[in-house]
Design goal:
Radius of gyration: 22 Å
Structural class: alpha/beta
Number of domains: 3
Largest sheet: 9 strands, mixed
CATH class of the largest domain: Alpha Beta
Number of strands: 13
Strand content: 15-25%
Low-confidence stretches: none
Number of helices: 16
CATH topology of the largest domain: Rossmann fold
Helix content: 25-40%
Distance between the termini: 68 Å
CATH architecture of the largest domain: 3-Layer(aba) Sandwich
Oligomer: single chain
CATH superfamily of the largest domain: Vaccinia Virus protein VP39
Length: 391
Amino acid sequence: MTPAARLQAAIEILDEVIASARHEGPPADVIVTRYFKKRRYAGSKDRRAVRELVFRAIRRSAEMPESGRAAALGLAQEEPALLGLFGEVRGPGALQEGEQGAEAAIVPGWLEAEISRLVGTDEQPALLERAPLDLRVNIARATREEMLPQFNGATLTALSPWGIRLPPDSRVDDHPAFEAGLVEIQDEGSQLIALACEPRDRERILDLCAGAGGKSLALAAAAPHAIILASDTNRERLAKLGPRAARAGALIETRLLNQPRELDELADWREAADLVLVDAPCSGSGTWRRNPEGRWRLTPERLSRLVSVQQRLLEIAAELVKPGGRLVYAVCSLLSREGAGQIDRFLQDRSSWISEDTPISAGRADGAGRLLTPGHDRTDGFFVARLRRSC
């Protein structure tokens, strides 16, 4: 492919990404892979070059562009070499007089007031930096020191005692240690959420929004003799936990829940859990460096719906924690309404609950919890709070 043809391919993919974001379709990674499956003639260098163009264009546009051409033109207006490709054979059509590309920004304008005060403008560029690949060592079966030499370019994570960090774009899914269940892919921030839970053997632990079970697996590795139930309302995601737990040698029960009957379906856990983890659905603003088009998918209406879901999940969790037990709330978000504001509201409504310091030194105090950010902690963005129910 010529450079002009690569740019045109990027524009076509960007058009699909924009349409997918509007209609809650598949993410950009999936769209890029699907595009090239239908175009076998593109070599590996072409695929890499086009992919890079696509994600550079996505990262620089906080607001959803009108089209893939507008997204690519915005990028090209900063790079004269790309601008010259418009109008070339097999490339995008020639520029029209007065044609403008998408504006560059990090945070969508409507979200600026929602971002935590801790994330200043000096930190915002880190929200879109390329993320490393973090691994969590299965400490029930191995140590970091044993695993470190097995991965090229690996270093120990600075904050999690379970983590190993690899360069961006590293692949481990066919590595013997991964296949043997000795490591799992998990951002250091997610590992710190599990550490904040302080799981103990023989405790009854409920991961209320387990998804595919990444944090359930971390809890099981730290407390192999705990009774752990992973629940979720998404059948497809929860089904992924079984094979992962088998590979890791972890004993984790799963339970598919149905809205709005979660409390009925968890009747045997009512006021019986030593620990309930609520890793709630959220805006994903803490993971923009991995999913930059997530900014295009978020709307004021969707954010309001997510905040309502989070409130409801906290209310459910409060009914499941036994007297003296603890509740850990986490969101991969940098938005105050989803983090500190959510916990402030919870504590105002429940005098029998108290906030506790999280047993992690990472992050910064944010209301009754702590906020981890890419700029300050080099992790994905997470808010985490730990609460205890009075005896």
